[in-house]
Recover the amino acids of this structure.
């Protein structure tokens, strides 16, 4: 099955276009003397079990590898974070088979190094898609273009510093005639790559609705998946995103609206309260309803 088909099928099965970020923050987990790996694995297992009991699922999951690898101490031969990521991916296989898993690692290097990073995402971690930086161009991006995998290329990101480079006016590298904001020039390049390699898509933040509207209008009808972070803690609104995508005639099943901390620890700071699982499920149901198909 192609990655595009997997996105469409998972959205139909879930009834929404939510991507659930899985970024563990130890300080907000329930207090425990258990090892880091156990704390993270048991926490996500409780959430997944409850979601399964209530018959709800997102249309994708997205662990950010930095949250896990930062908990490793390789020079002391300790890999609690990486093992917790492996446990989490195993849990997803068991509880939510067929739901795409996006490894958020934002890789991108010279061709041979990109090839190694692609192996890391697709063979070592056995995930369905990966996030990639376009800054080094074609030979840096295309090693990630596997036939049945997804590649989300940073297009217009949700962070405040995105304007520093992504909104700079530049000569378009595809038509070499017009001046565009960088994010539009990157969108043109993404569409060029996607015309030759199925599964190539874009990361477009929910915090800049003007840019999201322009980009989604350009991608409409082109089978280019969009990963849309920035909903929840960063201030973006799933309702606004859905409205923008509909206005642009963009195919909703190819979009994934991501929320991480807003779903897995909506109290944000401090140790988890006694009713933490109820708070998680309240947030889950709210976003799944807001981003329903």
């Amino acid at each position: 099955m192609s990655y595009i088909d997997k996105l469409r099928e998972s959205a139909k099965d879930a009834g929404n276009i939510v991507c659930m970020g899985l970024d563990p923050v130890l300080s907000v987990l329930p207090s425990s003397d258990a090892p880091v790996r156990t704390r993270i694995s048991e926490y996500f297992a409780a959430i997944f079990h409850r979601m399964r009991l209530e018959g709800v699922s997102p249309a994708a999951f997205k662990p950010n590898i930095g949250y896990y690898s930062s908990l490793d101490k390789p020079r002391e031969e300790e890999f609690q974070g990486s093992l917790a990521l492996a446990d989490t991916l195993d849990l997803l296989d068991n509880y939510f088979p067929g739901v795409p898993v996006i490894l958020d690692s934002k890789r991108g290097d010279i061709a041979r190094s990109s090839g190694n990073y692609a192996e890391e995402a697709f063979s070592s971690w056995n995930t369905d898609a990966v996030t990639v930086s376009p800054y080094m161009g074609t030979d840096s991006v295309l090693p990630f273009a596997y036939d049945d995998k997804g590649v989300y290329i940073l297009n217009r990101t949700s962070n405040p510093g995105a304007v520093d480079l992504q909104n700079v006016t530049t000569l378009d590298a595809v038509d070499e005639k017009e001046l565009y904001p960088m994010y539009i020039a990157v969108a043109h390049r993404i569409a060029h790559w996607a015309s030759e390699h199925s599964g190539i898509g874009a990361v477009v933040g929910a915090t800049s609705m003007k840019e999201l509207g322009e980009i989604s209008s350009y991608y409409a009808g082109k089978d280019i998946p969009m990963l849309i972070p920035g909903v929840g803690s960063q201030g973006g609104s799933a309702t606004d995103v859905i409205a923008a995508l509909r206005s642009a005639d963009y195919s909703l099943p190819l979009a994934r609206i991501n929320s991480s901390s807003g779903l897995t620890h909506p109290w944000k700071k401090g140790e988890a309260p006694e009713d933490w699982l109820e708070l998680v499920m309240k947030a889950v149901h709210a976003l799944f309803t807001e981003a329903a198909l």
Observations:
- The chain has a mean pLDDT of 96.
- Strands lie at 18-21, 60-62, 102-107, 129-132, 150-156, 169-171, 179-181, 200-204, 226-228, 255-259.
- The longest strand covers residues 150-156.
